[in-house]
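Researcher: Quick test of sequence recovery. Tokens follow.
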């Protein structure tokens, strides 16, 4: 997988050059492109190409964040998060002709379901990963107290991941330091409620919700609105 790191341009243009990634999946090569359109058109756009044609796209507008002032770090975090999600969609078979193949299809065996899944993942040259789900996404407001409803599950088997470590970090705009708002672990059902309070002076910042387990890590970035 070829990943071209983002290059930061001059502040006067307020545009972040994004990512271009080639992914080989099931003998097909997909190209995932994510870029920032800039403050004049505040959209983060992701496109997926296959055979020179666009097969999927996703756009996220951060126009509401500009009211609190432009933050290159916040936009970069949003761009990173969206690009990773698009790559996971490709690897998970979302754009396969018949969609993701069902586990154990056409197989008659006494093997357990979990064993079939593991054999399938091995045959596809992919490994099981985790997925972090944040219910009611859309950002949080500065000065508010809120309870985030979280779920950590395995990406392929869609099973809850217990004892995953979850951290909610506040990334202030224009500052290098981060502030830890919450730390906890998921229960047996993979779920967790994270109670947070965002200080009013951090409008324009971003929240990173991060989950870690032996299977890997995943994160979701949420904007902090005024």
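Model:
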């Amino acid at each position: 997988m070829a990943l071209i790191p983002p290059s930061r341009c001059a502040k006067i243009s307020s545009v972040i050059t994004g990512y271009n990634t080639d992914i080989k999946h099931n003998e097909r090569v997909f190209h995932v492109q994510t870029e920032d359109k800039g403050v004049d058109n505040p959209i983060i756009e992701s496109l997926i190409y296959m055979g020179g044609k666009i097969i999927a796209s996703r756009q996220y507008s951060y126009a509401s964040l500009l009211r609190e002032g432009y933050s290159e770090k916040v936009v970069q975090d949003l761009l990173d998060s969206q690009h990773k999600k698009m790559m996971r969609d490709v690897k998970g078979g979302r754009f396969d002709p018949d969609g993701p193949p069902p586990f154990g299809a056409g197989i008659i065996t006494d093997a357990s379901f979990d064993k079939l899944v593991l054999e399938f993942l091995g045959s596809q040259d992919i490994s099981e990963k985790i997925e972090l789900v944040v219910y009611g996404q859309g950002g949080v407001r500065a000065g508010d107290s809120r309870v985030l409803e979280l779920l950590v599950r395995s990406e392929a088997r869609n099973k809850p991941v217990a004892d995953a470590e979850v951290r909610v970090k506040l990334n202030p705009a224009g500052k290098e330091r981060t502030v830890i708002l919450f730390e906890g672990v998921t229960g047996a059902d993979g779920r967790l409620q994270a109670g947070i309070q965002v200080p009013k002076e951090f409008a324009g910042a971003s929240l990173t919700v991060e989950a870690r387990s032996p299977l890997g890590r995943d994160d979701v970035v949420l904007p902090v609105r005024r």
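The helical segments are 72-91, 113-123.
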